[in-house]
Amino acid sequence: MCGNCGCETQVKSEKTDKPSANIVEVHANLKSGNDSQAIANRALFDAHNVLVINLMSSPGSGKTRLLEETIRALKSQYAMAVIEGDLETENDANRIRRHGVQAEQIATGQGCHLDASMVQKVLGRFSLQKLDVLFIENVGNLICPACFDLGQHLNIILLSVPEGDDKPEKYPVMFRAADVMLISKTDYLQFHDEFNVPRAIESFRKVGNDAPVLEVSSLNSQHLERWFSYFTHAITVHQSQSLQNSGV
Amino acid sequence: MDKSVSLVHVKVGPLSGVEPDLLHHAFLACRTHTIGDQATLRIDTSAIKIRCKLCGEFSRVSVNHILCASCGAWQTDLIEGDEFILQRIEFIAPDNVTESKERKHVR
To answer: Least CB-CB distance to B86: which of A23, A30, A147?
Structure first.
């Protein structure tokens, strides 16, 4: 075989079936390192009855703005905090802190996603027992973040109108991971006639996801109310499940 | 000479988020100066198999068309296709270690 590109132009392997080869059957999940840390994170969140929401999307689709609006409207009802993942800067964390909510920035350098150990390293900075909800705003990226469980309870994926309605089928692994898809920046629909909401939902269904879809615009209070309603329901469900699990 | 790894056999599903070609490149870089520096990486890619929640039929589908092939429903359970598994490792005993440079990349 060619050693440069792996093309099969020369001899095939003759050594793998040699009787002297020792074969070890492994059958191990190669993501188990991250997965076991994610399970530990989730156990810690559950021990403190904190709902953890992982927000994923392309850069610039409105994750931070949605968090700001959510905090503005609901911080008197729920104790919230945010982990911000970005390659560089504390800009997003600073936007959250302006609302009086704790935000811890993870700067990933050239890393394109958060993983469970990065999250674990900043958890000590939070008083989890005082929180109802911890948001993790993942690095803006529709590829890698989907593959790393952080210990969250819910994955929320934003698809903003300027991105186009066919993104789910272009990024199937990411959109399959969604527990809810938010079509964000719907105020742009009037300028962006190629974006068709039913087509976006169809594209989402084509990756085999039956999760709910909400249209939101941070400029539209009625739209935001739909998201707030979903969000508060998710907290209620989570807290009642936690009570059941703790045997109360 | 010490025992060496001759083959690493992994299974990659199309929905695992792992790209076989990129994994192969990474493997070639990572095996240098290890007991696997002559090792072949064999990558088997699985198909995406689903079971329809409505009609119960099994289908093999493509990565962005995960719909029941029988009734067209999108309410399906994934049976196979998102795995990233180390299946087996093969070693060569010291007296059989060869200087073979060939590599096999099975897709």
So the answer is: A30
